[in-house]
Amino acid sequence: MRGRNDGGQSKRPIVLLCVMVVCLCLLFLYFSGSNGQAGSTALEYGTKFSRSLGWGSDGDSDDGSEESIFGTGDEDDVKLKSFPVCDDRHSELIPCLDRNLIYQMRMKLDLNLMEHYERHCPPPERRLNCLIPPPHGYKVPIKWPKSRDIVWKANIPHTHLAHEKSDQNWMIDAGEKIKFPGGGTHFHHGADKYIANIANMLDFKDNNINNEGMLRTVLDVGCGVASFGGYLLSSNVIAMSLAPNDVHQNQIQFALERGIPAYLGVLGTKRLPYPSRSFELAHCSRCRIDWLQRDGILLLELDRLLRPGGYFAYSSPEAYAQDEEDRRIWKEMSSLVERMCWKIAEKRNQTVIWVKPLNNDCYRSRPPGTNPPLCKRGDDPDSVWGVQMEACITPYPEQMHRDGGSGLAPWPARLTTPPPRLADLYVTADTFEKDTEMWQQRVDKYWSLLKPKVKPDTIRNIMDMKANFGSFAAALKEKDVWVMNVVSHDGPSTLKIIYDRGLIGSTHDWCEAFSTYPRTYDLLHAWTVFSDLDKRGCSAEDLLLEMDRILRPTGFIIVRDKGTVIEFIKKYLSALHWEAVTVVDAEPSPESEENEMIFIIRKKLWQPGGSQDPK
What we know:
Elements lengths: L1 H30 L67 H7 L44 E3 L7 H5 L7 E3 L2 E3 L11 H11 L15 E5 L5 H6 L5 E6 L7 H7 L4 E3 L14 E7 L7 H13 E10 L8 H16 L3 E6 L2 E5 L5 H5 L32 H6 L25 H22 L10 E4 L6 H4 L7 E7 L6 H6 L3 E5 L12 E7 L1 H8 L3 H11 E12 H8 L2 H4 L1 E8 L10 E8 L1 E2 L5 E2 L2
């Protein structure tokens, strides 16, 4: 008996070793599969290819070294063969606006305050790190300007709004396409007529909403499918069309598919990611917002965002209905805006337009103790990322008060004229003008490199992932495109300069996912974004996956960064179904001690387990 037992003991290490070898082989096969289908039906939590666990910080390495996450850029490093493909049900995933995550984590949110529509990013252990597949039958989007009025149904296979809003002309189910007649909840007969009516109410010349270039940036709250913003573009007016991922789930997705600027957001508890005094006009057409809640805090957020002399156009039953409840709301709302020093510019039929004062005189003349109060002196109205709203009035800086306005040039001169708020950042007009000139040269080079691959209508929706003063976007003024200018939440508040140039954008943290649907941008421009991420210790692999999520199939990426970053990204091209277009040395940069390179990439059109078509 003892002899047999000893024999069994001697065999156990061999058996265990064999089991371990088999397991390692299976793991190797799983992660090196040629098409990534092993993970196509599973939820992939955590980053399998990064030292970090995801969007959060890596923390210090075990040996306390500060080695770059990009390593040495050695081309002999092993290249990844595949990323897992997300399940089909995640084809429209927005990681930080995922209601399933809220339910799974049992977050205690106040639904009355719209907290469930605000950003709630997944913790590392719940982050899906896989490729978001396009829906079955996905097609290259219809080109602008045709796309304003018609899109492929296969790209956004949702028609509930066509039926729910059939009497309001939001959209029409037309077989393999979806048509947009230009209607809305309040403007069934077309946004163009409604816009002209607003201009007429304000006595603008020729009923043109741009007011001879003095009205350029608009915030459309509760925008629906963004027809209001889409029809403003022909008047050289650009709107940030804003709506939550609510019961009308795909409204912002439709807007972006149409080629109209839009952003997923909500007036809830936190400030919108835009700086103070960014918009000449705010608009709400039956947006179903309770403006009286919490001492008028939501209306005060609009007040923070409006420029001196800015307008709020409000089309809602409270402005004209005669039943008791509507009259009560109108009376209380009128009292609130009067205490905010707004005045009625015009009230006609079903629309009222208020105008904000040009200076602080009215605020200073209010009786002591008047509510809402002025914000405290220490409050920074341009600090917005994750900052709670406050029920207070944002007064103008002393210089703006004395000037009696924003001091901005009319559009299009506004695009290249140094704005007064440069002084807030201690930036000279000369620095601003040199930056504008430098980026014009850079963009001209980009387009010469892209020229063999693009036609005039190939690119419409562009994101500049590190916009600084917005000079990249300004250099595209002659092209029929729009740019979402992104500024880091922890850097200089240059986003206000971007808005003062007549452009739009958002504050963001690239350690997190952006508030947009998958497949919404034709071109991403990443100037030293990866190098900045390295300094913060966030996952570069996860940023690559996020860029892939928001980039349309056949879309382009322009990476401008140091050589080690370029070599790092090259390792992932096959895994991401990307292809290199070209890589060249960049001209010497005054901002960088290390020479930069330009790497242009194109995303292939692929289907899970199926074909890839770079064309």
